[in-house]
Design goal:
Strand content: under 5%
Shape: elongated
Order of helices and strands: HHHHHHHHH
Number of strands: 0
CATH class of the largest domain: Mainly Alpha
CATH topology of the largest domain: Tetracycline Repressor, domain 2
CATH architecture of the largest domain: Orthogonal Bundle
Number of helices: 9
Mean pLDDT: 81
Distance between the termini: 76 Å
Largest sheet: none
Number of domains: 2
Low-confidence stretches: none
Radius of gyration: 20 Å
Length: about 200
């Protein structure tokens, strides 16, 4: 007796479904204003059902927070890899700056105008990731100071101030559709970053 094959498509793992929804929402938000993006549009873009959406998220705003969270996690993972793999301090900082400019604003730029609870969640998540980035930068400066390659370890507030300023500039450029102009500013921003924290 042969075993019966299950009918229909195999089930997609939950984490894959969730990521498909996040990716689809980000694509939809990049194509149009957030206010015009509906759950129906997101699930159509993902090739999934509304039921699948609500299995993972309570609302569109809940998904927005996940987009910001996803971009932040990806950035931190990339920076961790850059800091592990890159030997020279200057190259390490340059690659990290490029990753910061490229990854961090893209997931939240169109979410800047959000009001209410969704806007508050986005602001809190961005702030949380700036603090995590500050921790990473502080550790790098401490290591560089221990090796004698930098004259001092900057104060935490100095690092926060510089990162927050660059973050604000990058969000403005992205919201104005000037991504390429922002990336061209990388050498200048790198100089400002290094000079400010000497």
């Amino acid at each position: 007796m042969t075993a019966k094959r299950p009918r229909g498509r195999p089930a997609i793992p939950k984490e894959v479904q969730r990521q498909r929804l996040v990716d689809a929402a980000l694509r939809a938000i990049q194509k149009t204003q957030f206010e015009k993006v509906s759950v129906a549009l997101i699930v159509r873009e993902a090739g999934m059902s509304s039921r699948s959406f609500y299995d993972h998220f309570d609302s569109k705003e809940d998904l927005v927070a996940e987009i910001v969270n996803d971009q932040g996690r990806r950035l931190l993972a990339m920076l961790d890899q850059i800091f592990r793999e890159t030997k020279g301090d200057r190259e390490r900082v340059s690659r990290a700056m490029h990753a910061y400019l490229e990854l961090f604003p893209v997931g939240t730029v169109d979410l800047e105008r959000l009001g209410g609870e969704a806007g508050q969640r986005v602001r809190e998540l961005r702030q949380m990731y700036v603090m995590a980035l500050t921790d990473l930068v502080m550790r790098q400066y401490e290591r560089a100071f221990a090796r004698g390659t930098v004259p001092r370890v900057p104060q935490r507030s100095e690092v926060e101030l510089v990162l927050t300023g660059i973050e604000g500039l990058s969000f403005r450029y992205y919201s104005e559709g000037r991504r390429e102009d922002l990336l061209k500013l990388q050498p200048t921003l790198l100089q400002v970053f290094l000079r400010a924290l000497q």
